[in-house]
């Protein structure tokens, strides 16, 4: 109990930048807060009714220069902080290329993490130091929030919606992982640990299928997706089956391409589009096809959808058979 | 309270002794009595909400969730939030002190719609009772924010009943807002021009605008949650085709401005108290008045800053952040003008002033830590942690509730005809200030370290700061209990209050008796001086010409 920390560890590149901003604002706050608190007490003591030694007859009821001064100085400072902070936020949260991608599904009351090579872990997340990481987060039920204070980042896990966050862990170590959006009975038990490993150690950890713990070695994410595609999903009954009774869109070369819809719109086939088209195929029907695919809402879990999406992504490099 | 006698000579008719039956209270149309009724109701809910807070701090005194079950803990912070926000903070100053003094301040006999005023109290009490019944029948665990789809598709318990309670309280708030807007526009005494209005009235005007324009949105939104729960219609639940983020937009469209419903009236009180006890006109009157309106207007455009981590578009977030920094400026303007009012004043260190200085000290910390949260990059780290909890308690308890206590101590003599012991009141103010800082300052540190809010248990390394916070809360609790003791004591044993014990300017002190006549003024006053005319102590703020038979009143025409 007496080992009392007053600061969180700072273990990411983004965290360092955010800490600098945090302390700048804090010291500004201390400065202005002290002016107001001690200034008001000082004035109230100095001008106490019993003190006749102070001059009062020159008091004025208003002064435009003062008003402008205490309007404009705070305004300029506020806008400076705003600009600094907005720039930093844009740099951190706008999409960035070349990241190590992890998928996280939140559900009452656990975190389920999937690595691209198929390693899965619960309430733990292993990451390499010194490499940009992209976390895509979604919820299976209510809203959760994926928060790693040591990295100073956080994103809500919202049902029905992929959110992303980026950060670059710098310091190997073990850091708190919290759910910070109230999600029901065991909200405060929806916690875990993030382990940052030196790059070689991380590769070793991955290669050994997670090296024990709660992680499970498996097929890669896209191989798992292929299993779902051919197994529980039964997607291959129609998709990419030359003998299918039903004409279904070819999924090769699909991911990242522009898709013409039956209603005339054009959309980019990203993760959100793939997810929606699996769960609720009637929402965006591809031009030239009949809306005959059954909805998979409630049939597939968010994990399986992420696996399927990884599989469909892997087909992006292939050429569609014949025309579309 | 009904046993208080008038102070001099034969017993003069006042608003308390004019009739003393229970029915005369429950059916009263007198804004002063309705203000008292509200004061009693609000105090009751404040007490219940404080008990929940005490339970929460007791649980958090140790890292393990060992006192309550997780479900009970979740219900406790929900009770605390729902009661304190909807049944204490939002109605606190407007419905009690606003009702009591606003008509007197503008030289009116009553509010514009006395029946609506009484109805608002019944809506408030019935709403509060429904919410309390929902809590007694097993409670709700959604948090006061009722976030979907948890509240609409997952949470068990009496969520719909609590929502109906909040819905009714919302309408009572709308009624009060409508009443004050019309009263301020139409009922001002002759000569009471807009820029002669006390700044409390300007603050109430700005507050009423928010109540009237914002509250319907949250009322409908919560009703939609109840509809989704009861009938399974997909509005917010993504499994039924709804959008859970839509709820947050609608909810915060009201609930952020609601923060200004809480703080603007307190700011109005602080203007009154600082002017009175500095014996000086509020510095930069026009700037203070317009800053209230600016807060009300810009305050409607910042709701998205509650949603920076939801995945809201970066550009929307940047715009909301920009507007959030803008809305900070009017508060800064007010603060510096209050300091300039004390400057070269003649400062009387009475209890209401101590509360007002406490307000300044705590509100400024609450306001400045708002910069950390309005700023995008830092907010994402701090949101949903104890940093936010500390920030809004500094604003709502340090600010709004300090303002409420200042108002209570300032207008108590006018309301009850009695003085309370000054030294006890000063001690209580100091205890609240110290206890408050001990309770909530450690929470800033905990929040920066990442401690999430609404956690029933927490990692061991945060024990010491949490224990400090819980210890501070007990001092804070005593600081709130003390006034309950000496104020009740003063009702019977307090010194009889004079008409104007503080030497204040303003019609409610200069032109209204203590205790006030049921009609406030025996004749309609004609206002001849601006507010806070301490520079001309010999000139009364209003004169009472001999009654003219043809005169039928009518306010504001000369304004």
Write up this protein:
The complex is a heterodimer of chains A (324) and B (559). Chain A has 324 residues and is α+β, with helices and mostly antiparallel strands. Chain A folds into 3 domains: 13-51 and 62-93, Helix Hairpins (Orthogonal Bundle), CATH 1.10.287; 100-207, Cupredoxins -  blue copper proteins (Immunoglobulin-like), CATH 2.60.40; 221-317, Cytochrome Bc1 Complex, Chain D, domain 2, CATH 1.10.760. Chain A is built from 6 helices and 12 strands. Chain A has helices at residues 13-46, 64-93, 199-207, 221-230, 271-279, 302-314, and strands spanning 100-107, 110-114, 120-122, 124-128, 133-139, 144-148, 153-157, 163-167, 173-179, 192-197, 258-260, 266-268. In chain A, strands 3-2-1-5-8 form a 5-stranded mixed sheet. Chain A has a 5-stranded mixed sheet with strand order 4-10-9-6-7. In chain A, strands 11-12 form a two-stranded antiparallel ribbon. The longest helix of chain A has 34 residues, at 13-46. With 559 residues, chain B is mostly helical. Chain B has a single domain (22-543), classed as Cytochrome C Oxidase, Chain A, CATH 1.20.210.10. Chain B has helices spanning 22-26, 31-59, 70-105, 114-136, 150-154, 159-186, 199-231, 244-278, 285-298, 314-342, 351-374, 376-382, 386-416, 422-449, 463-493, 507-510; strands at residues 526-527, 542-543. Chain B starts with 21 loop residues before the first helix and ends in a 16-residue tail after the last strand. The interface between A and B is large, with 89 and 94 residues.
């Amino acid at each position: 109990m007496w080992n009392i920390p007053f600061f969180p560890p700072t273990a990411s590149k983004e965290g360092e930048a955010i800490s600098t901003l945090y302390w700048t604002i804090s010291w500004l706050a201390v400065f202005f807060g002290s002016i107001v608190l001690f200034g008001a007490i000082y004035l109230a003591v100095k001008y106490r009714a019993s003190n006749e030694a102070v001059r009062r007859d020159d008091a004025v009821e208003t002064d435009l220069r003062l008003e402008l001064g205490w309007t404009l100085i705070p305004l300029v400072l506020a806008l400076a902080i705003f600009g600094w902070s907005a720039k930093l936020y844009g740099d951190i949260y706008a999409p960035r290329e070349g990241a190590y991608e992890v998928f996280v599904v939140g559900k009452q009351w656990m975190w389920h993490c999937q690595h691209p090579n198929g390693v899965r872990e619960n309430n733990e997340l292993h990451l390499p130091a010194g490499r940009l990481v992209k976390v895509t987060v979604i919820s299976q039920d209510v809203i959760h929030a994926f928060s790693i204070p040591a990295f100073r980042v956080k994103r809500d896990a919202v049902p029905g919606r992929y959110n992303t966050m980026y950060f670059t862990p710098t310091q190997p170590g073990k850091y708190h992982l919290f759910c910070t959006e109230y999600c029901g009975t065991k909200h405060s038990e929806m916690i875990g640990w993030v382990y940052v490993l030196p790059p070689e150690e991380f590769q070793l950890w991955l290669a050994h299928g997670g090296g024990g713990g709660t992680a499970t070695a498996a097929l890669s994410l896209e191989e798992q997706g292929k299993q779902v595609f051919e197994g529980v999903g039964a997607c291959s009954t129609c998709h990419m089956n030359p003998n299918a009774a039903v004409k279904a869109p070819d999924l090769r070369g699909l991911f990242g391409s522009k898709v013409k819809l039956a209603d005339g719109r054009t959309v980019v086939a990203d993760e959100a589009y793939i997810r929606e088209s699996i769960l609720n195929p009637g929402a965006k029907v591809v031009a030239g096809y009949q809306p005959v695919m059954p909805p998979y809402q409630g049939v597939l879990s968010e994990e399986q959808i992420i696996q399927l999406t990884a599989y469909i992504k892997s087909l992006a490099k292939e050429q569609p058979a014949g025309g579309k | 309270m009904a046993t208080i006698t008038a102070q001099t000579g034969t017993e003069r008719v006042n608003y308390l002794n004019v009739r003393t039956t229970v029915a005369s209270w429950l059916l009263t149309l007198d804004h002063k009595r309705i203000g008292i009724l509200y004061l009693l109701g609000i105090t009751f809910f404040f007490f219940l909400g404080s008990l929940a807070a005490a339970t929460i701090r007791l649980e958090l005194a140790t890292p393990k969730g060992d006192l309550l079950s997780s479900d009970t803990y979740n219900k406790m912070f929900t009770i605390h939030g729902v009661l304190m926000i909807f049944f204490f903070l939002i109605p606190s100053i407007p419905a009690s002190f606003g009702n009591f003094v606003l008509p007197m301040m503008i030289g009116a006999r009553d509010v514009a719609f006395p029946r609506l005023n009484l109805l608002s109290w019944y809506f408030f009490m019935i709403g509060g009772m429904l919410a309390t019944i929902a809590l007694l029948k097993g409670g709700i665990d959604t948090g006061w924010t009722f976030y979907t789809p948890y509240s609409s598709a997952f949470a068990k318990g009496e969520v719909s009943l609590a929502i109906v309670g909040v819905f009714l309280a919302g309408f009572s708030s709308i009624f009060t807002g409508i009443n004050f807007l019309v009263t301020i526009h139409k009922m001002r005494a002759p000569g009471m021009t807009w820029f002669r209005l006390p700044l409390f009235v300007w603050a109430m005007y700005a507050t009423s605008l928010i109540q009237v324009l914002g509250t319907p949105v949250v009322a409908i939104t919560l009703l939609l949650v109840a509809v989704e729960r009861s009938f399974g219609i997909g509005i917010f639940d993504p499994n039924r085709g709804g959008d859970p983020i839509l709820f947050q937009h609608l909810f915060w469209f009201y609930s952020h401005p609601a923060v200004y419903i809480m703080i603007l009236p307190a700011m109005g009180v602080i203007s009154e108290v600082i002017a009175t006890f500095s014996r000086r006109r509020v510095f930069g009157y026009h700037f203070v008045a317009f800053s209230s309106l600016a807060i009300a207007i810009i305050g409607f455009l910042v709701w998205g800053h509650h949603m920076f981590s939801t995945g809201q578009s970066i550009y929307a977030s940047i715009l909301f952040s920009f507007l959030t920094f803008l809305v900070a400026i009017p508060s800064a303007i007010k603060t510096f003008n209050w300091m300039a009012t004390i400057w070269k004043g003649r400062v009387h260190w009475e209890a209401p002033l101590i509360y007002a200085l406490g307000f300044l000290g705590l509100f400024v910390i609450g306001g400045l830590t708002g910069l950390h949260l309005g700023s995008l990059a830092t907010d994402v780290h701090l949101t949903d942690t104890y940093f936010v909890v500390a920030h809004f308690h500094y604003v709502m308890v340090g600010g709004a509730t300090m303002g409420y206590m200042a108002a209570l101590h300032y207008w108590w003599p006018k309301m009850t005809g009695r003085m309370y012991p000054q030294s006890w009141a000063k001690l209580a103010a100091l205890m609240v200030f110290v206890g408050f800082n001990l309770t909530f300052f450690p929470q800033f540190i905990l929040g920066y370290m990442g401690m999430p809010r609404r956690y029933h248990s927490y990692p061991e390394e945060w024990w010491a700061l949490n224990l400090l916070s819980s210890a501070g809360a007990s001092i804070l609790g005593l600081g709130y209990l003390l006034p309950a003791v000496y104020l009740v004591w003063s009702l019977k044993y307090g010194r009889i209050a004079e008409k104007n014990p503080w030497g204040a300017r303003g019609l409610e002190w200069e032109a209204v008796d203590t205790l006030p006549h049921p009609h406030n003024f025996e004749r309609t006053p004609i206002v001849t001086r601006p507010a806070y005319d301490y520079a001309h102590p010999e000139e009364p703020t209003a004169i009472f010409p001999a009654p003219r038979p043809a005169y039928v009143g009518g306010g504001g025409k000369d304004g």
